[in-house]
Amino acid sequence: MARITLFTGGIQPLPESGRPTGMYMTRVDAPLALGTEGFAGDQQADRRVHGGPDKAVHLYPARHYARLAARFPEAAAQLVPGALGENLSTPDLDEADVRVGDLWQLGSAVLQVSQPRNPCWKIDERFAAEGMAGYIAEHLLTGWYWRVVKPGYVAPGDTLDLLHAAADTPTLREAQLLWQAHRPAVADLERLADLPGLARAWRDKIVQRLTWLKKST
C-alpha cells in the first residue's frame, strides 16, 4: 500500500522562453475521473512526448525531492511534491519498488507501470537550475508513467495497492540501469524489449539500439 497525493494542471508559459508547459500542478482535494488518456482536466503542452495511453499518469517519488534540493539549493524552496509535473506523489515507492507490467489499484481504477519518465530541458528552465534534467536522468530519479487499463474514479486519501506483480521482470531501476549501460548484453536488452506492458515508444528505442548493437558487434 502506498499513500498518494493527487495533482492536475493546465498549460502555462515557462518563465524565460514563454514556451508552454503542463508542469505547473495544483493539488486536488476532490474525486476525479481517470480515463485512458489521464485525469479529467489535466493537460499536456506537447502531446508528441507527453500524455497518451502509455503516459496517462505520471508518478514522482516524493523522497527524490530532498536529494534534488541538496544538489540544487538555489531551487530548494520550489522542490516540493507536484513541482515536477507529476499527477501522483507518494513517499512510499520509488523506481526500485515497481516493475514494468505491474498492475496497481488506485480508487476504482487499475493502472499498469509502462515506462520511466524521460526528463526534458523544461525542468531546467522551470527551476532556473542548469543541469537538473540531466542529473535526474543520470541518477535515475525519473519517476514513471502508468497506462490506465481500467478507468475509474480516484479521490484524495485513496492508496495505490499492488494487484498483480509482473513475474520474472526487472525492477524499473534495474531496467533503467540496463538501458543506461554502455554496451549491455544483447540478450538482456532483448528480454527488456519483450516485457509485457512496456510502452511502445520505449520498446521502439530499445529495438533501435538492439539493431545498432547487433550491427556493431
Strand count: 14
Which percent range describes the beta-strand content?
Answer: 15-25%
Q: Low-confidence parts, pLDDT < 50 over ≥5 residues?
A: none
Order of helices and strands: EEEEEEEEHEEEHHEEEHHH
SS summary, helix count: 6
Structural class: alpha+beta
Alpha-carbon distance between the two ends? 44 Å
Supply the CATH superfamily name of the largest domain. Answer: PK beta-barrel domain-like
The percentage helix is: 25-40%
In the CATH scheme, what's the topology name of the largest domain?
M1 Pyruvate Kinase, Domain 3
The average pLDDT score comes to 95
Number of domains: 2
Biggest sheet character: 9 strands, mixed
Radius of gyration: 17 Å
Apparent shape = globular
Strand line-up of the largest beta sheet: 1-14-10-11-12-8-9-2-5
- Quickly name the level 1 CATH class of the largest domain: Mainly Beta
What CATH architecture of the largest domain do you see? Answer: Beta Barrel
